[in-house]
Amino acid sequence: MPNIFDILREEHVVMRALVQRAEENTDKDSRKLLRDDLKLLLLPHAKGEESALYPEMEKTERLRLDALEAVDEHQLIDRALETLEANLEGDDDEWKAAAQVLRETVFHHLAEEEEKTFPEAEKAFDAARKEELAEVYRHAYNARAQELK
């Protein structure tokens, strides 16, 4: 059974590709689909992390600051996604600028998690707890995804 970190890393690969595609694609007909795909991945992912992983990290003194920072970064990503959405009908440069900010924000967040946060958090939880967190994550992710459909 995959643990929470396995799931998150797999989703990060998909996120990078999708955010990159949004920045590279300025076709107005594709923008709504890209926006929808981004929302259906980024928002449930954030909800899952905020429901499963970050509360557990906050219980450990050395991980608390990383968890709080990650939640703040999610808020930045939400704002960047809102800006992208506001530019659905904008010209190509407006869309590309908004997509670039989203990409930079998402890539920074993912890199920080993968290079710093996850390795530290993995040391704090045993295998059984990591699997339990995966279940909590999946439940929160799926509930948020259903709300968006």
Major beta sheet, specifics?
Answer: none
Give the amount of beta strand, in percent.
under 5%
Tell me how many strands there are. Answer: 0
Cα-atom radius of gyration:
16 Å
Structural classification: mainly alpha
Distance between the termini: 27 Å
Q: Topology as H/E string? A: HHHHH
Q: How many separate domains make up the residues?
A: 1
Question: How many helices?
Answer: 5
| pLDDT < 50 stretches | none
Helicity, in percent?
over 70%
Descriptive notes:
The protein has helices at residues 4-24, 28-58, 61-86, 92-124, 127-148. It is mainly α and 149 residues long. The chain has one domain (4-148). The model has no long low-confidence stretch (mean pLDDT 96).
Tell me briefly what this model is:
The protein has 149 residues and is an all-alpha fold.
Write the layout of secondary structure elements.
Layout: H1 4-24, H2 28-58, H3 61-86, H4 92-124, H5 127-148
Characteristics:
single chain, 149 residues, mainly alpha, 0% strand
